[in-house]
Amino acid sequence: MARWGMVIDLDRCTACQACVVACQVENNVPPPGAEQAESGRAISWLRLVPFQHAEQGRQPELSLVPLPCLHCDHPPCTKVCPVKATQVGEDGLVAQVYPRCIGCRYCTTACPYTVRHFNWDRPEWPEPMEQALSPDVSVRPRGVVEKCSFCHHRLQRAKDQARAEGRPLREGDYVPACVETCPAEAMSFGDLDDPGSSVARLSQSPRAFRLLEDLGTEPKVIYLSKGEWGGEV
Amino acid sequence: MERFELGEDVRLLRPMQQTGRRFWTLVAVLLAIWLWGMFAWITQLRHGLAVTGLNVPVYWGLYITNFVFFIGISHAGTLISAILRLANAEWRRSITRAAEVITVLVLFFGVGCVLLDLGRPDRALNVIRHGNFTSPLLWDVASITTYLAASTIYLYLPLIPDIAILRDHIPGRRWFYRILALGWTGTPKQRRLLNIAIAAMAVIVIPIAVSVHTVVSWVFAMTVQPMWHSTIFGPYFVVGAIFSGIAAIIIAMAVIRKAYHLEDYLKPIHFNNLGILLLVMALLWFYFTFAEFLTTYYGAEPTHMTIFLSKVEGAFSPLFWTMVFTCFVIPFVLLANHVTRGKIWGVVAASISVEFGMWLERFLIVVPSLSHPRLPLTAAAYAPSWVEWSLFAAFVAMFILLYAVFTKLFPIVSIWEVHEGRELSVKEVVQRVESYLPSSPEPSHD
Fold it and tell me: Which of A49, A114, A232 sits opposite B56 (nearest CB)?
């Protein structure tokens, strides 16, 4: 069983937000209206979050960090769900079961990374964008919680493909939309348990760190950076 | 079986026999508020939780605050009445019923608040179909359901002899009371069984009540969120619940006393005694709050300090200091002083202050911790919308309405228990006090 993880090299990231757009399109996340953005209800599975960042011998500066769901090995969100609508599923992915979710938002409050989103409104797309929805991803109804799935539908497609060709899954068969899009090649994706994979190698880098590591959530998104990160902006 | 002699207690039947214009005015006003609330609810059903003031990261607001608040008030009745019964506190006799009714009624509104908060209320039964027992919300479901069942039984048992009295004295609704009286005639066997059942329920209900507010606190404390993740939360919430519960009983008693002229039954001494209990809870509440905040301050973990400072000197500080003032300073001054505690208005004023302050306390637990997420996200401030306020008002109104209707169907002061107090307790208390004293030595005959 694989343990899918992502590595984001912040020293390469240009904060261009191509990953953000790719994610929105891939996963049928509606573009937020001005009203939603203002009331703090914009849904985005992958956001750029401003962090304080200091490199040796330089003034601290503001840098933007791409933040998807971190798919923790010990997620604080899954155990508080009263109806098992979010679970650690196949290959360590933290899944969300939309038809079962009752919208109590306990998982959103329990997640220390605030990466879970609630559908305050019925999703809407401006014309003609609603004709370009991805058929692989269900559109979420109002009242349920959603979040980054690591493009789980791509894993299923890759597995089907591999099965049809009668071969095991190879590195690169399954890559989320954000990773595929990143023009700076700052993001990589793969099986953290496979010692030969690039993510396993990169996660051992002296530049590697994870967000809020001391909470013991064991996130499967690993960041790389030379400098010091963190703190309030 | 002989007819129960009501004597002067016939006064307690009056609210059930005659209903004046004032009562119907009250009903009309409360129904109007409720209908307004239903309009707000329909608005929310049509447009979803977008009509609330909630946002990212403040995913919980007024509904959850009210949930904790209402469940807290539910500790009024059953718990206080059970403790007073078990402690043989004779002054309890005329106040237990008024307290127990609060518990049973307010629990429905506590549960209602959670249903209001759901994004998909139509799927609420998933908690039974797909229940996940690692979730503290499921613990709540289990514990509150048990509490509702136990406190309903505990309200009903001591009602049975009174319902039999009503059956025999109020001809108009005889069929109704006959069914509920379960054939009570007051035989010695029936009395013995009833006393055993009441005593057993009083014992059973205490741990259930403690569990209820403990698990309500654990909804917050089990997460890793700053100023929620605290071991003190279980007992802190139980103390707060009993605190706001006692205040609720006092307010209810004052209203009943005035409305139904029960000055002979609800005397200043009752208010004084409950006032002392309220004072003790105010001190305990202060102790817990102080311990919680000092520990956070001294440890000075940055994520915790952000929340701490937002309460003590930041955006939430006006609410925070109002809470300290209304939960501690006002009740302490009014209740520690025997002059104001001896006055009914003094105890009632302290109770209203406590009720207000405890609501703020719940709000200040729920909202600030969510307002400052660990990661530097752009945070939006939370201001409850008209829908949330309207539904809060509607719930309070409906609670008062159901309480008022109860007083029109059943005696709000337990007739048989007051009667029993007159007949038996005076003797019993004398004997009890004598049993505490050293026995005088037998004169010797040499």
Answer: A114
Sort out which chain A residues have CB atoms less than 8 A from B136's CB and list them. Answer: 80
Nearest chain A Cα distance for residue B219, angstroms? 8
Cα nearest neighbour of B138 on chain A: A82
**CATH number of the domain where residue B16 is located:** 1.20.1630.10
Whether residue A109 lies within 8 A of chain B, CB to CB, comes out as: yes
Does A151 fall in a domain? yes
Interchain CB distance below 8 Å, A109 and B59: yes
- B432 domain-assigned: no
CA gyration radius, chain B = 24
Contact A103 B119 (CB under 8 A): yes
Taking CB atoms and an 8 Å limit, are A51 and B114 in contact across chains?
no
Better-predicted residue by pLDDT, B127 or B169: B127
ipTM, 2 dp? 0.91
Q: Which helix (H) or strand (E) holds A21?
A: helix A18-26
The predicted model gives B92-115 an average pLDDT of 93
Q: Are A212 and B141 in contact (CB < 8 Å)?
A: no
Domain containing residue A157: 4-29+45-52+62-230
Domain assignment present for residue A17? The answer is: yes
Residues of B whose CB is below 8 A from A229: none
B223/A41 CB distance under 8 A = no
Assess contact for A112 and B369: CB atoms under 8 A.
no
**pLDDT at residue A40 greater than cutoff 90:** no
Q: Which of B51, B123, B133, B216 to mutate to test the interface with A (most CBs of A within 10 A)?
A: B123
What pTM, to 2 d.p., does this model score?
0.93
User: Rounded to an integer, what distance in angstroms lies between the CA atom of residue B113 and that of residue B110?
Assistant: 5
Tokens, residue A3? 């343990």
B59 contacts A118? CB cut-off 8 A: yes
CATH at A14: 3.30.70.20
Residue B130 clears pLDDT 80, i.e. is over it: yes
Count of domains for chain A: 1
Segments forming the whole domain that contains residue B364: 9-419
By C-alpha distance, the chain B residue nearest A62 is B376
A64 touches chain B (CB under 8 A): no
